[in-house]
């Protein structure tokens, strides 16, 4: 599950427990509810930090849940359903009216990495944890919004090729060089502390949330088109 806490202008969304934080319908729904609460309470200066307990940030879709359907077709249906219901969560984060930061204190794989990359900034450990896109290894093509998210967030063709066509398991320093994460730190506590410092810096700007969200969306037209997010013009209240 997840918890949501607000301290000052910063919202802390935490995936709880020591498991792999596999993205099944229950967890996806819980995170979406938390993000909706964040949006409802948003004010100028709000910032969201998402982190996770244990050695995983998220290990992607819950394949055990899919397999528990009891048949090959049932497993495929469950997996496709997870792909579909995760898409609105990505849209929620891309359109959230505030800066967002993912503090990766452990492994982030496949949909778990996509969850992290749906945030504006990423901090990561240098000593433990890898980033990994497992789809080629397990024999699965990528959902269209995964590919659009990667093209939108990773400008380097070689970085995308390394993640997707070599299935590299990327550690912290290399992740910075590839442009996947913004900074690396020596421990899980330092990862979160760095995220908090960044959140405090961004929060001081007191930006208008709707404007922030629209400018963010404008940066990623292909992704927003696939997510069904439309542009909206926001003008200053005083000219």
TrEMBL record:
Q: Which reaction does it catalyse?
A: a (3Z)-enoyl-CoA = a 4-saturated (2E)-enoyl-CoA; a (3E)-enoyl-CoA = a 4-saturated (2E)-enoyl-CoA
- Family, per the entry? Belongs to the enoyl-CoA hydratase/isomerase family.
| Known pathway | Lipid metabolism; fatty acid beta-oxidation
GO MF annotations in UniProt? delta(3)-delta(2)-enoyl-CoA isomerase activity
GO biological processes: fatty acid catabolic process
Q: Does the keyword GTP-binding apply?
A: no
Q: Could you list the residue ranges forming a coiled coil in this record?
A: none
Q: What is this protein called?
A: Delta(3)-Delta(2)-enoyl-CoA isomerase
* Stretch forming the signal peptide: none
Its EC number is: 5.3.3.8
Swiss-Prot/TrEMBL keywords: Lipid metabolism
Where does the source fall among the domains of life?
Eukaryota
> Which InterPro entries does this chain map to?
ClpP/crotonase-like_dom_sf, Enoyl-CoA_hydra/iso
Q: Could you confirm whether the keyword Zinc-finger appears in this record?
A: no
What Gene3D superfamilies does this protein's entry cite?
A: 2-enoyl-CoA Hydratase, Chain A, domain 1
**What CDD domains does this protein map onto?**
crotonase-like
